[in-house]
Amino acid sequence: MSFRVEKSTEPIQPRTLLNFPNIFKPKPSVTSPEVINCADPGKTNATPPKETAKESDSCNQATGGPEEVFAIPREDSTDDTPCDTELTNGMTTSSSSIHPKLHFSLTYNMQHKELHVTVIEAEHVTAEAGCEGYISGLLTTDGRERQAQTSVRRLTGHVQWGEDLVFPLPDGYKMEGEVALSLHSCDRFSRNTNLGAMRFKLADVGMMSDADCWVDLQPPKQPQVTSSAGEILLSISYLPAANRLGVVVMKAKGLQSDRLKNTIDLSVKLALKHQSTKLKKKQTRRVKHKINPVWNEMMMLEVPREMLSKSSLDLEVLNQAGPGKLEPLGHCQLGLQASGTGLQHWQEMLDNPRKQIAMWHPLFA
């Protein structure tokens, strides 16, 4: 027997003798029309669709067999499946308003003649990030009012307190009167906002006693704002050792643009008064061409501590409309004789010496 060996200079191309093993994939449980070529996992000779024939050929060359192909549904495609219908009908859309819910209970202490309102928790609370809040109670009987409030907690969708609001009722609860519970939020500038309130009569305490009460807090009625001309952000502090009052005029917003048609040249004039006597006047620099001006300017005023209770600050936003022509845009007042945020800001300054306290104040024309 003889053998003959022939030599060749052509490169030898290896042939694929082994086929890639078939991979069985789980059968999709979705039966929407967007799923195409859903072959039975037990069958390996599925035929690819026509529109993907080229891609399937190239894939078959690498794997040695066809593979199941699924088309991703488009975003604008609609699928009227029963699950989607139930979710749409059962869930409330974000556009609808959901009122906060308050969970509380009532107990009348016969021994101490006190009404205990236990504030347990609140749900569906909507507030800006970083805001804190508390629950306040107001008891009104025979024209007299008694107030109480919980501690301040960071507001989230669900807030827990577990605290008691105690109201003395020496004559019992079977009398004319009512209790109002309100949810308040306050931001880092101590701007207080009423998020909702509820009321109940004292005559209903016996029926509501020792029962868990869930109540929707109704939004407060919007008061009629009298000629509001915008807001101004102020920060004040008092240094007892130096007898100095520090006032930082930070910025303003919401100024009436119809009064700033031609020229925008804004400044703030500050006057320190003791009773009706003006002690000191100062004015910030002027900021031009900005409808929401920022000053960030500090002014130091010397005031003895014993005079603070009868002193006040008057601030006025001015616009330099022309040479020697100053137009007032709005004013506000801080002091124990003031009202609203002016009174609240001044009182917090007295209660927290050496601490900078910032707060927004409405401007009135």
Automatic annotation (TrEMBL):
GO terms for molecular function: calcium ion binding; calcium-dependent phospholipid binding; clathrin binding; phosphatidylserine binding; SNARE binding. InterPro entries: C2_dom, C2_domain_sf. Residues 86-96 have a biased composition (Polar residues). Residues 98-215, 228-361 form the C2 domain. Residues 21-96 are annotated as: Disordered. SMART domains: C2. SUPFAM superfamilies: C2 domain (Calcium/lipid-binding domain, CaLB). One of its GO terms (biological process) is synaptic vesicle endocytosis. Belongs to the synaptotagmin family. This is Synaptotagmin-13 isoform X2. The gene is syt13.
